[in-house]
C-alpha cells in the first residue's frame, strides 16, 4: 500500500506533501536528514495527515503531483482538516485516522 502524507512545520509555517509505503519512517527521515534538501532546512516536521493512495507507486505519484501542481496552501489546510472529505480528482484518498493521536 502506498500513502500520500502531508507534513507541517510549525516553525516555518509550511506544508510538504509526499508519498511513501511507510510515511512514519519518512517523517523520521525528514526530521533527521540535515541536508540541503527542502525539508532538511526547515526544522522539525509533524505528520498532519496520511491518506491511503492505492497499491501502485504510479497512482501515488500521480496524486502527489496533482496536489503539488495546485500550489495551494488552502488545499493543504483542507486536506489536514479531519472533517474534510476529498472529492473530484482526490476522491480515492482514504484518510488514515490514527495519525492525529
What topology emerges from the helices and strands here?
Layout: E1 2-9, E2 14-20, H1 23-32, H2 38-41, E3 46-54, H3 57-70, H4 73-80, E4 94-95
Computed Rg: 13 Å
**What class do helices, strands and sheet pairing give?**
alpha+beta
How would you spell out the order of helices and strands?
Answer: EEHHEHHE
Which sequence of strands runs across the widest sheet? 2-1-3-4
- Which residues sit in consecutive blocks of at least 5 with pLDDT less than 50? none
Instruction: Note the overall shape.
Output: globular
Number of domains: 1
Largest sheet, strands/sense/barrel: 4 strands, antiparallel
Number of strands: 4
Q: What would the CATH topology be?
A: GIY-YIG endonuclease
CATH arch. level architecture = 3-Layer(aba) Sandwich
- The percentage helix is 25-40%
- CATH level-1 class: Alpha Beta
Question: What would the average pLDDT be, to the nearest integer?
Answer: 89
Beta-strand percent range: 25-35%
What is the count of helical runs? 4
Distance between the termini: 21 Å
